[in-house]
Amino acid sequence: MVGMESLFDVDTRDWLSQLWFYIGLTPLQALGVLAATVALYCFFLVMTRIVGQRVFVKMTGFDILLTIALSSLVGRAMMGHVPTAGAAILAVCTLLALEGLFGSLSRRPSLFRFINNEPVLLVADGAYLDDELRRTHITEHELQSRIRTAGIRSRQDVAAIILERSGELSVYSKGQPIAAELLAQVRSAARLPEELVRR
Question: Per UniProt, which keywords does this protein have (predicted)?
């Protein structure tokens, strides 16, 4: 009877050890997951500042495939050589904590400008601003699509199109002047004709 109990204890310990191997992680592995998650978060923060809001604009089929591939690579890199449930939970918690931290920091105007891209005027009085399109990597086809979805029948009826911090394209039609306060932080807003702006 004693022998059976001892055998049961050994089997239980072996089973628990194998279970922990698949769902848990050691302190060293946890440190690796934490470091990789922070590094990749900061890397993508810097890359979105370099590339601009283009990465958030409505995606094409190719963009979706690229996003899936990047998600797979980043997820694997964050969780280490042998992905486990514990590593995934730690990576998600770290990402949420970083998002909360940078959200709090962005309340300060100087850090807000560093963390976030500024909104950009892309179309002024129906004319494309080619230099801004090049800088933001937005194509004329994307602008034309946004004009159509806004229900505007002609580009000449567009007062302004602004690429927002979020990657959204805001379309303003002619008829009512745009309040100057809405354009205060918009790059190239000075290129809008005076008659389209309400001071």
Answer: Cell membrane, Membrane, Transmembrane, Transmembrane helix
Among 167, 175, 123, which Cα is nearest to 147's?
123
Q: Where are the domains of the chain?
A: 2-115, 120-198
Tokens of 53: 């809001």
Higher pLDDT residue, 114 or 2?
Answer: 114
Flag whether pLDDT at 111 surpasses 80. Answer: no
Which of helix, strand or coil describes residue 193? coil
Q: Give yes or no for a contact between 189 and 183, defined as CB atoms under 8 angstroms apart.
A: yes
Q: What is the DSSP letter of 77?
A: H
Decide yes or no: CATH 1.10.8.60 for domain 120-198: no
pTM of the predicted model, to two decimals?
A: 0.63
CA 37 to chain centre: 15
Q: Are 117 and 80 in contact (CB under 8 A)?
A: no
Residue pair 172/161 in contact by the 8 Å Cβ criterion: yes
Residue 77 contacts residue 36 (beta carbons within 8 Å) = yes
pLDDT score of 162: 94
131: amino acid identity, one letter: D
